[in-house]
Amino acid sequence: MYTLYEYPPSGNCYKARLLMHQLRLRFERVTVDTQANETRTPEFLLLNPNGKVPTLKLPNGEVLAESNAMLWYLAEDTPFLPDTRLQRAQVLQWMFFEQYSHEPFIATLRNWISYANKRDEFASEIEAFRPKGYAALDVMEQHLESRTYLVGESYSIADIALYAYTHVAHEGEFDLGNYVAICRWLRRIEKQPRHIAIDWRE
Amino acid sequence: MYTLYEYPPSGNCYKARLLMHQLRLRFERVTVDTQANETRTPEFLLLNPNGKVPTLKLPNGEVLAESNAMLWYLAEDTPFLPDTRLQRAQVLQWMFFEQYSHEPFIATLRNWISYANKRDEFASEIEAFRPKGYAALDVMEQHLESRTYLVGESYSIADIALYAYTHVAHEGEFDLGNYVAICRWLRRIEKQPRHIAIDWRE
């Protein structure tokens, strides 16, 4: 049995939950409230010294941090990870794009505006991050205009990684109205077998 | 022959250069001056729509972005990537840690202070980013206190990814004086066969 330490509204945590559900893996969920700094307690820091969720305890007791590293671990030798060397690297390219160029802006605004109630405190950062979030969406839109999925011709962990915060970008007040290819791709992801919503409870 | 589009002082670009040299791969270097916005020209955006270096053209003409995705591509089936599932995921864990919790603070301060001459313009950001950079170094120090390399018992692309900006952290005015384990690890990386310095020219 896996144990997923998670803050349920987090898109990063949702990535692991979604893939484990699609892979029919059994997992226990342990809530760690990041808003209440529960990731900074001595007990939690023993589990993950970087003090972040998701943190995944594997059935053998080993612990993995970093949502996209978990996706990779879980997806190896499954249809969720392509089997050519180039496509595997392209999956990682999109996952690093997500963590560097997408999540820091799109997820952060969603958190400040819709969860942490910090719209006023971070007003100038919100203004500065807004165009960077749209720039990431522009890169995705251009890529998806001529493609079904982010990499190759099938659904992969690259799609899971980018779906997580893109489909709730409106909670950070990003308007996806003009992103036709992205919206088509979001609907395609939602039609995958065993898809679950971010607020899914068993 | 590979073609590496790079800004030579960039640690992200150095990662690919270092690994290709250690793997004895032939590559051409093309300088793209990020300070002069040469990553935003229409020609460059055709190559990499996200407008960043390094960008790597493979011998077959395909193009890869994201430094750590390149490292993975180049390292597959070599001793630079461990062959157990857990260790591969741990390599990725450290590479995602690098791009999310380390590079945005340590590399950014180095650039503003030592290359882009923006110390005054970004004075308040520099102050805010400083403790976040040290927090990343603290996580590395704790991990390396009892280990030779970041993952397992051998040098891997996780070490290359973290070495790139850690060994020049002083250019962002981070003081590594108290980071004994990190400094020991840096020296160990520099003793690897075919190691090259960041300012290496053939």
Description of the structure:
2 copies of one chain form a homodimer. Chain A is globular and about 45 Å long. Chain A contains 7 helices and 4 strands; from the N terminus they run βαβαββααααα. Chain A has a 4-stranded mixed beta sheet with strand order 2-1-3-4, covered by helices on one side. Chain A starts with a strand and ends in a 12-residue tail after the last helix. Chain A is 50% helix and 8% strand. Chain A has 2 domains: 2-75, Glutaredoxin; 85-190, Glutathione S-transferase Yfyf (Class Pi), Chain A, domain 2, CATH 1.20.1050. By secondary structure, chain A is an alpha+beta fold.
Output the radius of gyration of chain A. 17 Å
Helix-strand makeup class of chain A: alpha+beta
Mean pLDDT of chain A: 97
Number of helices of chain A: 7
Instruction: Please identify the oligomeric state.
Output: homodimer
Helical coverage of chain A, percent range = 40-55%
Largest interface: pair, residues per side? A-B, 32 and 32 residues
Give a brief outline of the structure.
2 copies of one chain form a homodimer. Chain A is α+β, with helices and mostly antiparallel strands and 202 residues long.
Can you lay out the helices and strands and say which pair or pack?
Two copies of one chain form a homodimer.
Chain A: E1 2-6, H1 11-22, E2 27-31, H2 42-47, E3 55-57, E4 63-65, H3 67-75, H4 85-115, H5 123-144, H6 157-166, H7 180-190
